[in-house]
Amino acid sequence: MDTPVASDPPAPTPPAHRRRWRILRNVLIVVIAAIFAVWLVVFITKGRFLKHPFESIASSLSDREVRVGGDFQLYFAPLRIKFLAERLAVSNPQWARGSTLFAARRIEARIAPLSLLFGRRHVYSLDLDQGVANLEWDEGHKRNTWTFAKSGEGKPFAMPRIDRAEVTGTRIHYIDPQMPLLANLTIDPIAATDTRIGKAVGLTGDGTFRTTRFRLSARLLSPDASISGAENRLQARAWAANSVIDVSGTLPGLTEFEGVPLKVAAQGRDLSDLMAVIDVAIPRTRRYALKAQLVKEAQTYRFTGMTGTFGQSDLSGGFTVSNAQRLRIDASLVTRRLDIVDAAPFIGYNPDLVASRGAVAAAAATGAGPRRILPEAALPVAMMQRFDAGLDWKIAVVRSKNVPVSNIALKLSLDKGRLELSPLTFSMARGDVASDLIFDTRQRPSAIRYDIRLASTPMGRLLAGYGLADSGTTGTIRGRIELNGRGDTIHDSLATSSGRIAFVMPQGTLWTQNAQLAELDLGTFISKMFQGKLKKPIEVNCGLLAFTVRGGTAAADPILIDTSKNVVTGRGGFSFGTEALDLAFRADGKKFSLFSGQSPVGLGGHFAAPRLQVISPQLVGRAGVGLGLAVVATPIAGLLAFVDPGDAKSAACGPVLAGARAGAQRTTGGKPRDDVGNGSPKKNQR
To answer: Would you tell me how many other CB atoms lie within 10 Å of the CB of residue 675?
Structure first.
């Protein structure tokens, strides 16, 4: 009887989690193998079979026609995407001027795969031959040719980060009707002279920005290798608005400018021409040369560490240009020495004309009539309303022959056409001037306000350039000018202005031959001349030179100077409109004088060419009377015509020092004065 054989025990069943792991492992192996197989097929074939799918998918996604007329490659090599296309063409939307957005004879690139899905596009290398790009905005600045979307607004052009580029014979056309800007650029490789530089890309071109033509030449010098991001040396030069602008610096990537400090230098004939390109109005300048560091952050351009010159003056500081919603410029500037000729443009004069031919010729160039010096240069109203500005400018010294000016501090604010210079302060001959000037171009014509205040200032230093001796002169002067007018030029605003001008002289002395002659006390003058004491200080008790201005015509209100020997009064006035002067000054003696002219001194002519009439018609008439008496009677009788009884009434200095009008002036006895007029012009100013 056979003995039964025992069977092997069944193998133990693996746990469920092990079975799942094996299944997952096998699936992963299959997936990886499949991916590798696909990669291998694509790698071996270079992805050429993807040409037509690429054209179809790209055309559908971009809503443009995309065509490749030659060789095509698209594959991982090994982990970077390699893209190659010959005779590639991408069409533009129908509204664009150019039919083609981009075309190239050959383009080859190595692209970071994940950058296509996340963050900024990153291109390791780009080789481009005979490319043409037509980049355009539409008239409403809503759509552009490079935003691939069937609907929605166009986005700003964002260049990918490119570590290395070799570009040959490629052209770029850019059109922005809103700015407006038209640029035609050609990109060509150039050989670098620095042996440490492996590749270089050059760019040249021209175009029009607004109405200004420009030319451009630039070089991007980039090292060979570049997986981690290379640094590229930028050298660029542009010619525009009679200026030359140089830009240089080091870029972290071929197209990365954001937050990168760049060196900028500009020089040219007139800085205002260059600023006008971006619709910013500044006074004209003489030849200038400036350099600074530029950093771009979004829509803001910061210029720091600026140094340079304009004309014979220096300039340093910095400024910021922002174009986020409305163009705005903010600047903080310092000038150590400002030449007075370079300051001429601040009131509308051409500084080169002032330097070569004088203020009258410069005024005539602004449109002013003959014999006028107030400029007729119109405010750039339209431009002032297109941008805003803030300025803080400090000037240490002004180089001037006649009037010493220093310590200028200017704060400027421009808001939608309303320009305010407040405060504008400076020191003049050890005196301080504070002013507030407002030019409101929102009103038509412009509403302009002048408020200028002169603190107590030594007259010796103030008028030293005009013949008044500093030594021996203790007199001071203080005053204020308050005028309001309408017009778009300085001349027009003053020619329509109303207000008051008043200068007060407290007690002091003046030492000058001309001032002694102005008193026309001929007995004293001739006596001192023969004694060899021509110069002796005039003792001033108090004085007031004041004018009331109505409709651009200023009338003496009053002119009254009380000295130890005389009371000087003045009549007449002047016109801002015609710039004519018609003033008469008379000195009446307080003491008896045998030889006294007692005749007015006339001041006529115009601002540009005043005329002083020392021998006036009244004096000639008195001489005729004296001659007649000498003939009819005796020679001694002829002297009676020149006798001054010395009955002038001293002025009460209280109203004088208060700057009161003519009607409020009094004698020391408290009686109203009848020799100072009533604040009306003697006659119409011619």
So the answer is: 17
The answer to whether residue 248 is domain-embedded is no
Domain count, the chain: 2
Could you give the CA distance from residue 294 to residue 656 in angstroms, rounded to a whole number?
57
Cβ atoms of residues 169 and 130 within 8 Å? yes
- Residue 228 sits in the same domain as residue 322: no
DSSP symbol at 258: B
Cis bond leading into 404, ω under 30°?
no
Quote the CA–CA distance of 564 and 585 in Å, as a whole number. 17
Flag whether pLDDT at 238 surpasses 70: yes
Cα(417)–Cα(611) distance, rounded to whole angstroms?
40
CA distances from 184 to 134, 176, 546 (A): 10, 12, 63
| CA count, 13 A, side-chain hemisphere, 200 | 17
At residue 307, the pLDDT reads 97
Find the radius of gyration of the CA atoms of the chain: 42
Strand segments (E) across 459-580: 476-486, 498-505, 508-510, 538-550, 553-563, 566-575
pLDDT (average), residues 586-590: 76
Residue numbers of the domain that contains 227: 41-240
d(CA 311, CA 338): 9
Token code pair at residue 613:
């009439």
Beta bridge partners of 580: 606
> Among residues 214, 240, 266, which one ends one of the domains?
240
Tell which residue, 191, 197, 258, has the closest CA to residue 226: 197
Which stretch, 360-364, 380-384, 589-593, has highest mean pLDDT?
Answer: 380-384
Compute the distance between CA of residue 657 and CA of residue 553 in angstroms, rounded to an integer.
24
At residue 245, the pLDDT reads: 95
Q: What is the pLDDT of residues 180-223, one digit of tens each?
A: 889 999 887 654 444 344 556 678 999 998 889 999 998 877 54
321 and 234 housed in the same domain: no
Q: pLDDT grade, residue 495 (50/70/90)?
A: very high
Q: Which of 75-89, 297-311, 641-655 has the lowest mean pLDDT?
A: 641-655
Secondary structure string (H, E, C) spanning 580-635: EEEEEEEEEECCCECCCCCCCEEEEEECCEEEEECCCHHHHHHHHHHHHHHHHCCH
Identify the three-state secondary structure at position 104.
strand
Select from 240, 258, 279 the last residue of a domain. 240
Does the pLDDT at position 270 exceed 60?
Answer: yes
For residue 93 the two structure tokens come to 């939307």
